[in-house]
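User: For my dataset I need records formatted as: sequence, then structure tokens, nothing else. Please produce one.
Assistant:
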Amino acid sequence: MADLTAHIVPMSDRKYRLVSLDEVTVLNPRSRDKRQFEDNIRSIGSVGLLKPILVNERHRENQGGYELVCGEGRFLAIKAHGHDKIPAEVINCDRKTALLLSLVENIARVPPNTMWFAREIKRMSDAGLSLPKISQIVGKTEHEIAEYIRLMEMGEERLIAGVEQGLFSISFAVAVAKSSSDTIQQVLMDAFDSGIIDSANTNRVRNMIELRLSRGKQPRRGGRTGKPDYTLRDLKRDITEATTKKEGFVRESQGKENRLLNLLDGLNTIWKDEKLLALLTEQGMAERPVLAGKYNT
């Protein structure tokens, strides 16, 4: 694994050149937000290029040009303005290190918890970076990194589109993608669209659906055997049923607590009876039990 820290060069030792755009080959092209790219073009047209691109000269003699390591957006914006040359910092490294430098730069520029972010993590993994190394670079746990990669590998188009449009978080997308069947995924998505669930309770609802399906409690269409059909209506019914049971449990618990408090209040009253205390003392039973917690009066 290449050591990226070994390529941190003091400013006094850095090399800068004005290179021809025709000499530059994009090493790690990526998709970019159209609106953001248009803003970059306008910004460079107004104030100029504030930061040079980064290119690698290691293979220049063989390929006849430089490999672009960082700054594709700046490179394309300058090209869009019709310029034929661009300021560049020139480094000399192997192709794998150049690729990793490019990926690290990209991950620092994309919004976290978006599909752009997930794609860059996947690209870093494909380039050979380990989960611990990616975790160190992006500030996410190894488990989270693995989930991002899994979502990309599963190619969940509807989920990817939902995240990119800001409809739900990537954590919700991962939770849905982990579902055991297309039926569960569809119900979860419909439930989210209907406002029944959100990112916070996705896992709980998913577990409820999976439990229902595994037990086979739902009716089958036309009496057919096989996996039961499960719809958004079924989910609404199950959530209502679970909520009703929970509310019933709370009411029952509150009723029992009230009866206990009444019993304790009665015992407190009895314990104030001097004749009873004298009798208990005579029988060696005058030591009052100590109650724990909020019932200790």
